[in-house]
Automatic annotation (TrEMBL), chain A:
<dbReference type="GO" id="GO:0016887">
    <property type="term" value="F:ATP hydrolysis activity"/>
</dbReference>
<keyword id="KW-1003">Cell membrane</keyword>
<dbReference type="Pfam" id="PF12399">
    <property type="entry name" value="BCA_ABC_TP_C"/>
</dbReference>
<keyword id="KW-0472">Membrane</keyword>
<dbReference type="InterPro" id="IPR032823">
    <property type="entry name" value="BCA_ABC_TP_C"/>
</dbReference>
<feature type="domain" description="ABC transporter">
    <location>
        <begin position="10"/>
        <end position="257"/>
    </location>
</feature>
<dbReference type="InterPro" id="IPR027417">
    <property type="entry name" value="P-loop_NTPase"/>
</dbReference>
<dbReference type="InterPro" id="IPR003439">
    <property type="entry name" value="ABC_transporter-like_ATP-bd"/>
</dbReference>
<dbReference type="GO" id="GO:0005524">
    <property type="term" value="F:ATP binding"/>
</dbReference>
<dbReference type="GO" id="GO:0005886">
    <property type="term" value="C:plasma membrane"/>
</dbReference>
<dbReference type="InterPro" id="IPR017871">
    <property type="entry name" value="ABC_transporter-like_CS"/>
</dbReference>
<dbReference type="Pfam" id="PF00005">
    <property type="entry name" value="ABC_tran"/>
</dbReference>
<dbReference type="InterPro" id="IPR051120">
    <property type="entry name" value="ABC_AA/LPS_Transport"/>
</dbReference>
<dbReference type="InterPro" id="IPR003593">
    <property type="entry name" value="AAA+_ATPase"/>
</dbReference>
<keyword id="KW-0813">Transport</keyword>
<keyword id="KW-0067">ATP-binding</keyword>
<protein>
    <submittedName>
        <fullName>ABC transporter ATP-binding protein</fullName>
    </submittedName>
</protein>
Length: 270, 282
């Protein structure tokens, strides 16, 4: 691995995706530095979620390449990509409702190396040891998220905010290199935003790079090292939060699509 | 017969309860196992320890062969394909007269002979099937309480999230389908040697109907629910000496009522069901 790729956790180049002739993504290129926090903003329908899907392999790209930590992801299944250390959350909150919290975390850490059906069934010592380690890690994670009291409860019964925390914990179980967060603050009670933000910063300090799609621009500008702006399937601009927040084109893009309220939010950020 | 239904109920339970997929292929695996063991016994004179093992393997293999194309489909299409597979095999069994004697069926199948000891009489069979059922329940427990069982439930609960967590839905379902096939194949072999007669009718839908009543009323996705269902619904009709037509009618109505009014089955009455991955779940 060369020095250039070592400091770069993800490089997506010329991503294209069209639905029935409509370009959802029209040659999008982004680069993420290892251990960085990157914001991805843009009006609704600008292609943010599609870009996520194309990077993670949930949707096939029409063109373009994605390289994760020096490794080309071409042709890999989404589950394979997840095992390589690229995890994601979904815009629509997802947990396993009929598993307990602990089992949710364990299920999220399933994909261990050397996985064999027979060894699993026979419960070889290696399997038992692995399960014990994972259970410990799950318990530590629950404690970190302050959900340890609910370890044995079914995830379906959690509050929305608790599910959000659990989802984040699940994405972190296997220590990913890069985590894509699709609107982590959507639907979260304003009083909890601060807490979740601290959580994200703590995750980042552990060395996990974050790519965040979020409509709460204040938060994005607050925690990101750099910000990409998408508009109509193209990168409108890329720069530091301050540069992006004060850019005429960005303000205009938001004005055109989201009305004055959003502009206010976008324009008055420092 | 009760023991045989315990095997079959767990076969369906793994698919319906833990994977959330309605599989009507259990009679297909059942029939494959029955014919495999019968033909190996009659044509090659193998010991039943071998033919039962082969029937289990044939069931598992059928699961893989049928699963590779069908498990990629939507849930609804999967139901249709599994039903069609059973009916297709019935047609094959009826028409491949050289191998199966067609609709005449195969009679005078010798009773199971394990390592030289023949299972003679009802009590010997009862003991044998009790052991086999216990083993089947133990095997099911091994599967569903392992990481694999947890993966099955994860895929059932939320497939995109399971994929995002690195689980391969096709592989895990294929594994479940193979296990389902193995249990049904073994049950089929026992059936053939116990009744000493099989015909293409064993591929029919009526087995699926009985099984659905047993599994859903007992509690799909629980370990003991289907066992209870299997015991109740084999003992009860015999005790009441119901005609098969009446039984089929009653089961049909019952199935409708259960699905409408108590989709979680009887297991709900006995506290929380044993969830998958309970081995580490606490």
């Amino acid at each position: 691995m060369s020095a250039a790729t070592a400091s770069q956790v993800l490089k997506a180049d010329g991503i294209r995706k069209a639905y029935r002739g409509v370009h959802a993504l029209d040659g999008v290129s982004i680069e993420l530095a290892a251990g960085s926090i990157t914001g991805l903003i843009g009006p609704n329908g600008s292609g943010k979620s599609t870009l996520f899907d194309c990077i993670c392999g949930f949707q096939a790209r029409d063109a373009g390449s994605v390289v994760l930590d020096g490794r080309d992801l071409k042709g890999l299944s989404p589950q394979r990509i997840a095992r390589l250390g690229l995890r994601r959350t979904f815009q629509q909150l997802r947990v396993f409702p009929e598993l307990t919290l602990r089992q949710n975390l364990l299920a999220a850490a399933q994909a261990a190396p050397g996985f064999s059906y027979f060894r699993e069934l026979l419960r070889t010592p290696a399997v038992r040891r692995h399960e014990r380690e994972m259970a410990q890690r799950a318990d530590a994670m629950l404690e970190e998220l302050r959900l340890e009291r609910l370890a044995g409860a079914l995830a379906g019964g959690l509050s929305y905010g608790q599910k959000k925390l659990l989802e984040l914990g699940m994405a972190l179980m296997n220590e990913p290199k890069l985590l894509l967060l699709d609107e982590p603050m959507a639907g979260v009670n304003p009083t909890l935003v601060e807490g979740l933000k601290e959580e994200l910063l703590r995750v980042n300090r552990r060395g996990v790079a974050l790519l965040i799609v979020e409509h709460n621009l204040k938060l994005v500008f607050d925690i990101s090292h750099s910000v990409y702006v998408l508009e109509q399937g193209r990168v409108l601009m890329h720069g530091s939060p301050a540069e992006v927040a004060n850019d005429e084109r960005v303000i205009e893009a938001y004005l055109g699509h989201r009305g004055p309220a959003a502009t206010e939010q976008g324009a008055r950020l420092d | 017969m009760t023991g045989m239904y315990v095997l079959l109920a767990q076969s369906l339970n793994i698919m319906l309860g833990y994977c959330g997929l309605l599989s009507l292929a259990t009679p297909a695996f059942f029939g494959m196992g029955a014919y495999a063991s019968t033909l190996l016994t009659l044509r090659l004179g193998w010991d039943s320890s071998m033919t039962l093992a082969c029937a289990t393997a044939v069931g598992a293999l059928s699961g893989v062969v049928l699963g590779v194309p069908s498990l990629r489909l939507s849930r609804h299409s999967f139901v249709i394909v599994t039903l069609s597979a059973a009916l297709l095999l019935q047609i094959v069994a009826s028409n491949w007269i050289g191998l199966t004697r067609g609709a005449l069926g195969i009679a005078d199948i010798p009773t199971a002979r394990l390592f030289g000891i023949a299972l003679e009489g009802k009590s010997a069979w009862l003991a044998f099937m009790a052991v086999l059922s216990a083993l089947a329940v133990a095997a099911t427990w091994l599967i569903v309480s392992s990481r694999l069982g947890r993966a099955m439930v994860a895929v059932r609960d939320n497939e995109p999230l399971a994929i995002a967590a690195g689980i391969d839905p096709l592989k895990i379902r294929l594994f479940a389908f193979a296990c389902s096939g193995a249990l049904a194949g073994l049950a089929g072999a026992c059936y053939a040697h116990y009744l000493s007669f099989i015909d293409p009718g064993i591929f029919g839908f009526s087995i699926s109907e009985s099984l659905l009543v047993m599994v859903i009323l007992g509690g799909a996705g629980t370990l003991w629910g289907p066992v209870a269902g299997a015991v109740i619904f084999t003992v009860l009709p015999e005790a009441l000496s119901m005609a098969p037509e009446v039984k089929s009618l009653i089961y049909g109505v019952l199935l409708l009522l259960i699905v409408l009014f108590m989709p979680r089955g009887m297991a709900r009455w006995f506290g929380r069901p044993l969830a998958a991955g309970a081995g580490t779940g606490k």
